[in-house]
Design a protein that fits this description.
It contains 16 helices and 22 strands. It is of the alpha+beta class. Among the domains are: 162 residues, 2-Layer Sandwich (D-Amino Acid Oxidase, Chain A, domain 2), CATH 3.30.9; 119 residues, no CATH class. Helix 1 runs parallel beside helix 5 and helix 1 packs across helix 10. Bound molecules: flavin-adenine dinucleotide.
């Protein structure tokens, strides 16, 4: 068994956990971050992509609205290139309560969310596909935020401050020293070896899984109800601004333009298991119908992919009474010393991707208080590595970069403009045999063909670069195709069905993927964190 000793162990590599490990490392603690799978593979990698202005919560949840607008400003400053400054519109459609608009304006003014009413004609000029029957339109500073870019930028920042980041290290057991948590035993999924991580303090940032982790630590009854939400991406942008229904939050009331697609979402239904999120035909229909309210014809546009995520909905009476008194309803901090008499452990969950930095700051403040040390958070001040504080991502930036190298570098993924050079760089940096890990860094195979044209090329390059044997390369290819299929299968109609048939002919007819020799994706050296290369 490998043994590691550290001051702070952070469990969970979603937005919250990477925010926590960055904060901890910047305050001068030695830290280790672990996740059971790849970073950003939980809810954060499945979210809607909206950097909230707070407008959505201005009436229903003013505390969250204030947090969102404050963090919106911070993230624009420190994570400029992870964000596209799309702006946001709230529009009153014929299906919305017409009285809500005035309450919305009042709520925005009470919570500090900048809002400006514009003429309907101006809204339609900006977004020509919007429902022409809208009666009012308001501009707010919503934006879209790339989950994976943000996650990797935080991981890199933490690493620059000395933290270690270990994906594919599920926590199997929590170590106890009497009434204190003393670390955890993980399994290194790439080598099969157990890794014992001894720590002075442990922060549970496992989102919708936080109750299970608290159970492992011997602090039962932390109730985090996974709230399932589904989202559907169209194969191109139907709007360039985040468009919200101006009504109380409901299902399918926001379309977010992110990268090359528009994403409609979302639903909210409690489920038992955050790892089991089936998508039904009724939910798909409901989303498409809701899309038509905002953009008539939405349901007949080509639907590219559907997926689901699990919101960490915190409901814990015991902890709420003891620990969340001074904290917003959005985020939930559980100090297990107070709640359970168990020192050295804090759980931070709930909240939103937009408020991940604040959640991290609150959690690390609470840890410092328990440890009796005074070290202030600096995460709101320091720009993330590789970020340009004055510039945001813009839709044409990848094409502009591609044009600079188009004569010297082969194009591997046409939909997402991934070149051979960038693919080789990502394979080397991630030290992985898993094409899905590469997808999350480069967006490889995420366009309309869902890997149909690029993924066997990428497999060949992975085979070459990582010196995989044939069966291991075949396994990597099949795992990728299977993963893509999950998101296409519930929306098999129209043009995407035609694409799926073509992909099937390529993979079954030409490559005979069902019958190629299959192997194991082999053991890996210590994984190297990705430089964000998108
Ligand atoms: C459908 C939907 C749409 C949303 N849209 C938005 C939006 O537009 N804007 C917004 O701001 N917010 C949005 N949210 C909310 C936001 O996505 C979440 O609040 C946020 O991503 C949660 O981040 P997290 O790091 O706490 O959890 P996660 O991202 O889920 O991270 C938890 C991590 O813990 C890991 N883990 C679990 N168990 C273990 C273990 N035993 N050992 C090691 N690791 C473990 C998991 O693998 C996972 O990576 C949305 C949520 C949903 C469900």
């Amino acid at each position: 068994m490998t043994r590691i000793s550290t001051e702070v162990l952070v469990i969970g590599g979603g937005a919250t956990g990477v925010g926590v490990v960055r904060d901890v490392a910047m305050r001068g603690f030695d830290a280790v971050l672990v996740d059971r799978v790849d970073f950003g593979e939980g809810t954060t990698g499945r979210y809607h992509g909206l950097l909230h202005s707070g407008g959505r919560y201005a009436v229903k949840d003013p505390v969250s609205a204030r947090e969102c607008i404050a963090e919106n400003a911070v993230l624009r400053r420190i994570a400029g290139e992870c964000i596209e400054d799309t702006g946001g519109l709230f529009v009153t459609t014929p299906a919305d309560d017409p009285d809500y608009a005035d309450r919305f304006v009042q709520g925005c003014s009470d919570t500090g969310v900048p809002v400006e009413e514009i003429a309907v004609a101006e809204a339609l000029r900006r977004e020509p596909l919007l429902n022409p029957r809208i009666s009012r339109a308001f501009v707010v500073p919503d934006a879209s935020m790339d989950a994976w870019k943000t996650i990797w930028a935080c991981v890199r920042s933490a690493q620059e401050y000395g933290a270690r980041a270990l994906p594919y290290h599920p926590v199997m057991r929590i170590l106890r020293d009497g009434d204190r948590v003393a670390g955890a035993v993980c399994r290194d999924e790439r080598t099969g070896e157990d890794v014992e991580i001894e720590s002075r303090f442990t922060i549970n940032a496992t989102g919708a899984w936080a109750g299970r982790l608290a159970d492992l630590a011997g602090a039962p009854g932390v109730t985090v109800v996974p709230g399932k939400g589904i989202m559907i991406a169209t194969n191109h942008r139907l709007v360039n601004t985040v468009v919200n229904r101006c009504d109380m939050p409901g299902d399918g009331d926001i379309i977010v333009p992110i990268r090359t697609v528009s994403v409609i979402g979302t639903t909210d239904s409690p489920v038992d298991d955050p790892d089991d999120l089936p998508i039904t035909a009724d939910e798909v229909r409901e989303m498409l119908d809701a899309g038509d309210e905002l953009v008539p014809g939405f349901s007949s546009a080509r639907q590219l992919r559907v997926w689901a995520g699990a919101r960490p909905l915190f409901k814990d009476d015991k902890a709420a009474a003891a620990d969340t008194r001074d904290i917003s309803r959005g985020l939930a901090l559980v100090d297990h010393a107070e709640r359970d008499g168990l020192g050295g452990l804090i759980t931070i969950t709930g909240g939103k991707a937009t408020t991940f930095r604040l959640m991290a700051e609150v959690a690390v403040d609470a840890m410092c208080e328990q440890l009796g040390v005074e070290r202030r958070s600096r995460t709101a001040e320091e720009v993330l590595p590789g970020e340009n504080p004055d510039g945001h991502y813009w839709l044409g930036s990848r094409l502009a970069r591609r044009e600079r190298t188009m004569h010297d570098d082969q194009l591997i993924c046409e939909c997402e403009l991934v070149s051979r050079g960038r693919l080789e760089e990502a394979i080397a940096r991630r030290g992985t045999q898993n094409l899905d890990d590469i997808r999350r860094v480069l967006r490889l195979g995420m366009g309309p063909c869902q890997g149909g044209f690029c993924i066997y090329r990428a497999t060949g390059i992975l085979h070459d670069e990582r010196r995989l044997d044939g069966p291991a390369a075949n396994a990597a290819l099949r795992a990728f195709v299977q993963e893509r299929w999950k998101g296409v299968q519930p929306i098999l109609f129209g043009d995407q069905l035609r694409q799926a048939r073509l992909d099937e002919w390529i993979f079954q007819g030409l490559l005979d993927i069902e019958h190629v020799a299959d192997g194991e994706v082999g053991a890996e050296p210590e994984p190297v964190a990705a430089k964000e290369v998108v």
